[in-house]
What does this fold into?
Amino acid sequence: MGQVTVELRLVFLKIGEIDTLKEQFQAEAFIQARWSEPALKGTDIDCFDANKFWNPLLFIDNSVGDLKNDVWHKVVYDGMDTPMIYEMRKIKGVFLENLELNDFPVDVQDLTITISTTRTVNEVLLIADTNQLSTINTHTFIDQQEWRLHEHVETSTKLLSSPFSPSQNQHPAFSATCHAARRPGYFYWNVYFLIFFITVMAFATFSVTYNLPQNRLQLSFTLLLTAVTFKWVVVRCLPTISYLTTLDKYVLLSMVMLCVVCSWHALIAVCPPDRAPYWDNIALISLAIIYVLFHVIFFFWMYFVTYRRRRMMKRKDRDYIRNRLERLSICGYHSTKESDKYVGSSAATTVLRKTTNPKTEHRSSNSSDETLRRNSFEQNPSILKNQHFIEHYQPKISMRQTSIVNPFSFGRFNNNSNNNNNNNNNNSYNNYNGQQLLLTSGDIEAMTMRQFRMGSLGC
It folds into this structure.
């Protein structure tokens, strides 16, 4: 068997705590892998057994500790001769992530889940799903007070070398990355402003007469030691890193300003008494101008350098939403033109959905409300992703082969049926021409996500 292409899609269901010190995060995700299986042609998919067919042998590469991993399979005929095997899994655990803290506390962190395989690159090729984008649920984020999740998800592929293999074979890997932007308000108010006030107070030491340098030095050294204490408080919030963050740069430059003030108070003691007041005023004005210029430059640097990635993330959010809507509209258009499509699973479930043809049906005025609801359902494929709609209007899947003659003949859609006479009911039934509109990949995702939510209630 040659190289098999496996399409992967990951949905971040829930992002838990992001631990900056340990450089790891908690997450719950859904992974969908699909590949073609020619051996299933002409077989009864109701008796599908995943253990008897080829499997990519996927695993999570960057997980830490015990990982909760639930796996099941489905078989889908997507209108092609070769059936597709869908491997779906729900994972929950802790994942490692190397945090980039150069822009701290206005940093944007990448939260990545990497999927790899024990098979080599000659056996399997991992790519992103060509039909559906990887997504994230931003409404179930736990650390919303400290972080803000962006709505787009980026995917990439790479090759990993196995350290246990003598031949150093390379294995393909697929990574899905979401982005979390830190909310910097806490550090602005509790670190930046306090350091700013401590440094500004250094200029108050010039109010002490120049011929009392010992008093000036005492006040200046007290402010300097206070700034050093704040620096150690900031260090405790970060892991041990070998580079300076944005907050470190501001604190260190403020400490440099305090050191310059201390040095001047030491030099003023050796100046001639007749020239000391003049030079003291010059030093005060010069240091004040330098400090103001420092803040102006620092603010511009913060906006154009450190905040640049945040603006980039917002642009990617807009592009991602636009791209996703385009894909949904395309999938919705093609789903109305697809013919026989069957879905099978390891639970021996086959679903065949039938619906009426909106072009040939003719309803009386008494059933106009029913027609309006049916058309709005057929013309809006995004409804299939609405959990509330699925729970109320989607037919339940049984363990037997199910044929739904008319999914719009539920009691919910036939509120006016008691007012119609038997003749209208017969005409309505005869207008149904039996066109088959079978489950699309969007239906599979909707039913799967419903199953996930039902299962997560017991977690």
